[in-house]
Amino acid sequence: MDAVAVSLAEGLRLRRPSWRDALFLAGMFGLFQALMPVLGWALAFRFADTVSAATPWIAFGMLALIGAHMIKESFEDDDDHGVTSLVTLRTVTPLAIATSIDAAAVGVTFGVLEVDVAPAVTVIGVITAVLSLGAVFIGARVGERLGRWAELVGGVILVAIGLRILLDHLIG
Length: 172
What we know:
Blueprint: H1 2-14, H2 19-42, H3 48-74, H4 89-100, H5 103-113, H6 117-146, H7 149-171
Subcellular location: Cell membrane
Protein name: Putative manganese efflux pump MntP
Family: Belongs to the MntP (TC 9.B.29) family.
């Protein structure tokens, strides 16, 4: 759901995403949501405690930085504000990592429970990609209505997701 929420925020920011951008964004989120449990599974017994302890902090830091940057940009004067935002490997990879890094802990569970990893991560990746694709376009529709406020809202959403991940770890 974090990937879906970030896709929504990206749609808010882009406002008129191309199918190429939306598919790339959704594909990256699906790919990373599938890869992180595999990574966690592969490292299950060697680094389980380290993975579980560090991931919420890493995810919080990445999402807070990206969200703060979006919030800052929302206050800058720019004639084509938000419309020309590029969806590139460089801009999407940190978001994909930040929203999926906690899934490495799921992979640790896969190792302990002896889950058949390939079908599980395939389902995770496909569902994440499909939901994220829809969220980009929903966010874009809302972003058209919000205008310049869309990037501010998107940045606040990213910071809030980062805080939720961190608070879930600290409290729960």
